[in-house]
Design a protein that fits this description.
Blueprint lengths: L2 E7 L6 H9 L11 E7 L8 E7 L2 H8 L2 H6 L14 E6 L4 E2 L2 E2 L1
Antiparallel strand pairs: 1-3, 1-4, 2-3, 5-6
Organism: Halomonas organivorans
Keywords: Monooxygenase, Oxidoreductase
GO molecular function: monooxygenase activity
C-alpha cells in the first residue's frame, strides 16, 4: 500500500504568493526519487488553516531514503524567511489502508 506524508505549514499573511511560487519553481528533485508517486501543494480555504504539502510514496522506506538523500538537502537548502511562517503544523505520516482512484481500487 502507499505511504502518505503531509507537511502542514502555517504561512503568514502576505507570504502566500512567495510560498506558492517557490513550489512552482522547484528543482523537481523529488520527482526523480525511487518510490515517489505524487506531490500536491494544497492551499487552505479556511481561516488560519495551514497549507498542506502532501507527498505519496510506494513505501515508508522510499520516503526515508528521500529524506536521507543529497537531493533532499538541495531541495530544502533555501528555506522561506523566518517571518513567512508561523508556529504549528508539522509532519503527519500515514499508511494507506484502502482507497480508490478514478473508479479503481488501489
Amino acid at each position: 500500500m502507499s505511504y502518505i506524508v503531509n507537511n502542514r505549514i502555517h504561512v503568514n499573511p502576505g507570504f502566500e504568493d512567495e510560498f506558492e511560487a517557490r513550489f512552482r519553481a522547484r528543482a523537481g528533485e523529488i520527482d526523480k526519487q525511487p518510490g515517489f508517486v505524487a506531490m500536491r501543494v494544497l492551499r487552505p480555504q479556511g481561516n488560519q488553516a495551514p497549507y498542506v504539502v502532501e507527498t505519496e510514496w510506494e513505501s515508508q522506506d522510499a520516503f526515508r531514503a528521500w529524506v536521507g538523500s543529497d537531493d533532499f538537502k538541495r531541495a530544502h537548502a533555501n528555506p522561506l524567511p523566518a517571518e513567512a511562517t508561523a508556529e504549528g503544523g508539522g509532519l503527519e505520516q500515514f499508511e494507506v489502508v484502502e482507497g480508490t482512484v478514478a473508479g479503481s481500487y488501489r
